[in-house]
Amino acid sequence: MPPIVARRAKFSPPRASERRRWTVAEVDREFTAFVNERGAVLLRVAYALAGNQHAAEDLLQNALAKAYARWPRIRGDAEPYVKRILYHDQVSGWRRRARRAEVPVPELPERPAAGDDSDLRLLLRDALRALPPRQRAVLTLRYLEDLSVERTAALLGCRPGTVASQSAKALARLRHLVPALDELTDRSEVTR
């Protein structure tokens, strides 16, 4: 019987001595470029999750701080990583607030008052806030970010069927809460 010789596998991770060492300047330069390029998109996602500008800015700042700490590992695919941090941090915040106290949500009127589209948009925003966290995240990623069912499922860590069912339930709930939603989506002059 031939002797057993230990060989290093062809696709094994590099040894510690072979790993690339990143300088602080390199990390700062790449990270700053990423934030400058994708910051506005990430802030829009944070706003859709948080519901107001100040909370969105805080949420994004925390997510970017976490991403910066792991930058050498995530640099090639940082945007989905940051979006996932945004989602998880927001859900954690919702859970913390839910444990502290219950916040009553006012009843929405069946029909918006006659006025401009801003009234309808405010109703829609309030209705989005009334959705459960997962449904709100699914709608944000699917329709605001225009991601596919598969990509949304990957970001949320669930199956595509779950995304599809949560999306359908959320849209049905929105149509129930804001009957004038059909008017908003039918008008060609209204943009997202």
Assembly state here? single chain
CATH architectural grouping of the largest domain: Orthogonal Bundle
CATH classification class of the largest domain: Mainly Alpha
Q: For the terminal residues, how far apart are their CA atoms? A: 72 Å
H and E order:
HHHHHHHHH
Integer average pLDDT = 79
Biggest sheet details: none
Number of helices: 9
Give the overall shape: elongated
Number of strands: 0
Binned strand content: under 5%
Residue runs with pLDDT of under 50 for 5 or more positions: 4-14, 187-192
**Helix coverage percent of residues?**
55-70%
Q: Report Rg.
A: 22 Å
Structural class: mainly alpha
What is the domain tally?
2
CATH topology-level name of the largest domain = Rna Polymerase Sigma Factor, Chain: A
